[in-house]
Every structure is written in structure tokens, then in C-alpha cells.
Amino acid sequence: MSDRSSPSWYDVIVVGMGPAGASTAHELSQAGLSVLGLEKQTHPRYKVCGGALSARIDHILPPEFKDVVEESVHRLQFSYSPEESYFVESPEPFAFMVMRSRFDKWLMTRAQRSGTEVHEAEAVKTLQPLSDGVEVTTTKGRYLGRVVVGADGAMSVVAQQLFAGRGLRNIPALESEIFGVSEIREPLLSQNPGLKLAVISLNAAKKGYGWIFPKRDGLSIGVGEFVRGDSRPKRSFQQFSEEEPSLAGLTIPAPVGHPIPVYNRHPGVKGNKWNGGLVHDRAVLVGDAGHLVDPLLGEGILYAVRSGQLAGASIVKFLQGEQGTLEDYEHAILREFAEEFRIASKLNRVVYGLPRSWHRWLGRTFPVPYQQVLHRYCQLLQGRETYQTLWARAMHKINPFGRAAAEMEMP
After folding, report:
1. For the segment 305-334, what is each residue's pLDDT rounded down to a tens digit?
2. Pick from 387, 297, 331: which is nearest to 76 by CA?
3. How many CB atoms lie within 10 A of CB 179?
4. CATH topology for 69-98+171-260?
5. Are 12 and 148 in contact (CB under 8 A)?
6. Maximum C-alpha span of the chain
7. CATH class for domain 8-46+101-168+266-342?
8. Domain coordinates of the chain in residue numbers?
9. What pTM did the predictor assign?
10. How far apart are CA 111 and CA 60, in angstroms?
11. DSSP class of residue 4?
């Protein structure tokens, strides 16, 4: 531990050891850099979370991560009213369900085995930029790093202190978990009853959706509001809990609220730098701290892991004198995520902007193309489609949907 009068030096200090921070630390330590990971809590830490990893995570994590997977989802139910749903099945999983306590612990242990020094139960208090690094003061000591990585979530201390004026919005979400029940009751039984089901309900929220995800010994239930204005997550959660047929008869514990830091641009300024920037001097933001969250469904864990990997690669080049800059990280994020998130933002405005009655009308009037779009979205979760190809197909398949989307085109 550091002495306040004689701070310890590290190549990189990572603030937050969740999926983004642990992934960054792993990449850096594997390259031989000295890395300190600061975590204000102690792993394994319980966290109410949907814990859904789209199957694309298979492409960026080693197979060993499946040791902490609770369930693999092969069947999705999209509901638009308590009586009306569409189902999609696949022999290949759409998503993997994890408990964050086990998954985050696995990622942190992986980073430690690569050489990361981790200090748990040590919260960051202040960060001070230096000419050649950043000074970090915690509840237990003082440290100096050539680079600091903010991986400390939606309310990031690193972002607040070193990225002044970002002012990015979060969306409200409420989540709860039921233990002792791991099967989701469904009105239409699958021809393959062994396939695990997850529920996505557009009927659950006026400007968002609700979800039910299966875990090994429980269900994760939540509601998120994804559009500004008229947000009512408490009312939506209560209504979803009371009216969703698959939850009938279940006692649902009071939900826990938390912000989801979805990707967003500064509104109305065409060409403005996205998310207020991910790099400033010797500081870098990854995962939720950088608002690297899918703006359509709020998926964040995949992007947390991947942004950590990209940040790690750029920091290694920068510190090892390979003619790299920290800005290379932001450029890599833009190349990999920006267009996908831009299209997801368009879909957000269409899916959540249209009245629910329109969705029901579209599904009834154009059942084949509408269900084809849902199938394509499920293939996106598997990495067989992208938002860009999905958008193009949707415009081709459903003309009324396409006209509405064109009218809502983002600036």
C-alpha cells in the first residue's frame, strides 16, 4: 500500500474493476506494464443486473468465461401486449446469462493472474493531472500513474474530475431479481422445451421495454425508459409486474434503480465530437464511464469488455514508444462502434417513438416481414448481422416502418 508522503508509481492506474476495468487491466498486464486496479467495493460484489451477454461475446473472450455462465438463451419472446407475442428460436444461443458477482470476479481474477495489482475496498477521492501522468488520491493512499483509466461506471469520478463539461445523459432503469424460480412461464410452448427462454416486452414501458432473463436459480426482471421526456420507470415496472402473464403469481421484490449510460451525441450539433470525448491528456474512459452502451437495448457488458481491450492496446503502444497516441483508442472506438451506435439510435427513435398500437398493427398487417426483422435482430445478437445491415433490411421489408424512420432521421 502507498504511503501518502511517498506515492507509488505505476504505468497505468485503472479506476474500477468491473468488466471494462478488468479487461483493460488484463491487456496492459499481459504486455508487461505495471498496473494498479482500484476497486471501491470487494469482489464478489452482488449487483442487481440483467446480466445478459449477447452471443457476440464469444468472439472476444476465451471459452473459459462460460464457466460462470448461468444459462444460455436459445429462445426469445417479443411481446407487444399481454396476449400477443412473437417467438424466435435457434440451435445456437442468442445470449448468455451471468450473475455479475461471479462474472466480474472471474474477469478481475484473470487480470490479477496477468500481473495486475488490485486494491479492493479503496475508493478514489481526487485525481490531479500532471505533466507526465495523473496523481490519484484514495481513501487509503496516494498513487501516480503515467495514464489513468476511468472504468468506474455511469457516475464515473474520473469523468467528473478530468473530463469537465461532458454533461451526458443516462436513462433510468429499475431491476429486481426473484430467486428459486428459473423457468419463465410462456403462453405458447416450444416444440423444443429444453430451450431457455428470455422475454422482451415493448408493452412494459411507454418509451422503452421490459425484460425477464433466466438465471440458474432465479429470474432478472427490469424496465428501462430509453427516450427523453414522460419517463415513468416506477409506474412501468409496477404495471409490468402486475400484467405480464409469465410473472403471474410471483412475489417480486422491490426494484433497485440505476442509470444506464447509453451512447449519445450532443443534440443538435452536427459533426460534434461524440460523447464529449473518451481521451483527455493522460486519462481514458472505457465502458459505462465512456457511455459506450447500445442505445437501443442498453447492452453494455459487451462494449465494456471490448472497449477495455481497445484501450489496453492503444495505451501499450503509447507507453512503449511505438509511435502511438492515446487518441488512437478513441479512433478505434469510432471505427468499431460509432456507425453501429448511430444506426441503433435511429432504431431507438423508431421503436420507442412509435405508439405500441402501431407495432401491433405492423405485426398483424405485415406478419412475415415484421417477423423477419425480428429474426434478423436475433442474428445480430449472434454476430451474424450488424445494425447497419439490419437497418437496410428493415427499410426494404417494412415500408410503413421505413417511412416513419425516415421522418425521424437524426441530425
Report:
1. 999 999 999 999 999 987 789 999 999 999
2. 297
3. 11
4. D-Amino Acid Oxidase; Chain A, domain 2 (3.30.9)
5. yes
6. 72
7. alpha beta
8. 8-46+101-168+266-342, 69-98+171-260, 354-411
9. 0.90
10. 15
11. T
